[in-house]
Description:
This protein has 346 residues and is an alpha+beta fold. The chain contains nine helices and ten strands. The strands form four sheets. A four-stranded antiparallel beta sheet has the order 5-4-6-7, covered by helices on one side. The chain has a two-stranded antiparallel ribbon with strand order 1-2. Helix 2 (85-114) crosses helix 5 (208-234), helix 2 (85-114) runs antiparallel to helix 7 (265-287) and helix 6 (246-260) runs antiparallel to helix 7 (265-287).
Amino acid sequence: MLSVLAALLVFGLIVLIHEFGHFLFAKRGGITVDEFSIGMGPRIFSFERGGTRYSLKILPFGGSCMMRGEDEVNSDPGAFNNKPVWTRIKVIAAGPVFNFILAFVFACLIVGYTGYDPAEVISVVDGYPAKEAGIREGDVIKSLNGSRIHVYREVQNYTMFHPGETLEVVYERDGEKYETVITPRYSEENGGYLMGITGGTYRPTENILQTLEYGAYEVTYWIKLVVKSLGMLIQGQVGRDDIAGPVRIVAMIDSTVEMTRPYGLAIVLLELANLTVMLSANLGVMNLLPIPALDGGRLVFLLIEALRGKPVDPEKEGMVHLTGMALLMTLMVFILFNDISNLFLS
Length: 346
């Protein structure tokens, strides 16, 4: 029961904050919001204020922001499609942006509690190229092949996504920067290519500014990881077993709660906060993809309107979004089937 409640809270908070972003900027832009709801399904309780019905619904997850004239022609001055294009762009973009803000807030809480993992070399392994290239304990990795590094997990991810690739390494020692070239060596024992360094020791932050800084790095880390994973998915480098939908995510939350429960409520909440950062950043990125029916798809049409000075034919845009929605629903059915298959076969 606790695991189900935790999953509902995590999903509910992420979707609710997303919809609240749309709601807040719609209100600021003078757009009529017919209903803003917490939860989904039939209403349990509702009241009307300022032309908007605020509802609490029976299913305790998610929410919605229903704007007048969002998907249809409406002559009402407060209708979405009758507002200036840049007002509409801000309203649509606000949902994903609020997901990134939520991820940042939780990331700062996590960093403030657990500390951060600087990209500092803790030890150098004999017989591997890092030592041969002159890397020493205490060196801080600053970039790999021009990709900036802020936390040690980024070093691990870069070598994982670029196995065996020669690395131009920029590192810092005693305040001075150095450059070297390292070609990772394959390790039979570990089953992968290694530079021959270890790191990832967490340190407490020294002040609030450092907490905010590494909170931002944490969100950036997840955004970059999602984008890279999407690239691998498009290139066919990700298998069915690596794709997780709502069912597997709920199962993941369940296992997380069960594994951390013996260590106390604080650890359970910390792990749920980590999942919230990951999932909120994921939702923000996914919603900005230029896919019809998603926020990113709507933004494409709005940006075209801003550039050409007139909107795209509403009927044509509606058909594109309808087709996109049908494809997304088909994809969701596939992901749901995949989730259930993996759960029963694992």
